[in-house]
Amino acid sequence: MTIAGPRFLLVDDHALFRMGLGLMLAERWPQALLTQAGTWAQALEHLRHQPVDLVMLDVHLPDGHGLSDLPALKAAAPQTRVLFMSGEVTADLIAQAREVGAEGFIPKSAQADDIVAAVQTLLRGETSFASLPYAALSTLQGGGGQGPRVPELAMLVSEAGPSFTELQLQILRYLGRGTPNKAIARQLGMSESAVRAEVSWITEWLQATSRQEAYDRAVARGLLPP
Q1: pLDDT in tens, 22-60
Q2: 200 and 103, same structural domain?
Q3: What is the pLDDT of residues 120-150, one digit of tens each?
Q4: Would you list the DSSP string of 24-44?
Q5: Same domain, residue pair 50 and 113
Q6: 82, 136, 167, 191: most buried by Cβ count inside 10 Å?
Q7: Do 64 and 176 fall into the same domain?
Q8: 147 occurs within a structural domain
Q9: Are strands 81-86 and 104-107 parallel, antiparallel or unpaired?
Q10: 33 domain-assigned
Q11: Host domain of residue 209
Q12: pTM of the entire structure?
């Protein structure tokens, strides 16, 4: 890590998600050097020429797959630590991330505080791997205190789709009213950049192209009352 601040490389093919992630990191580490890449090739090219402390890497990219291609990244930058981020969270993916040499794995739906905590852990030289949300599957457990086998859990988590926190649902309600980020931040006691990051993640999860579409999709999925 440099004196000026940590050096981050954000690798994701969705520019909106990268922007939100960058804003969140810049708020926590104002002196950080933030670089973005939308493809695997761009990420490798950057790493060959510029040192990076932490790569925050989408598992699935248009021209590569993080789990199978990670050895090439480690060869190009052996001292760089890697935090995988994915919209898909399964026991198998998390186990594979460990096996291929990543230092961390976190869902894209994670709260900003959880992402910051994972980043801090990796920058300290430790590892941080997300736990599967077993509590959300508690109603599916069998008798005798025995839950589903790991493959079944992996399948259920993969198919469950995103679950939003109460804070994110509040933000969605404001989006439906056309409330700007500054006003949302004031109402919820958040910074404007934190709201922007949450909005980016919400729209990414719902595959929406606008704030209003994100709200409409949330209503259509039964996440919010009409």
Answers
A1: 888 988 898 899 898 989 989 998 898 889 999 999 998
A2: no
A3: 999 999 998 876 543 333 333 333 334 333 3
A4: HHHHH-TT-EEEEESSHHHHH
A5: yes
A6: 82
A7: no
A8: no
A9: parallel
A10: yes
A11: 166-220
A12: 0.60
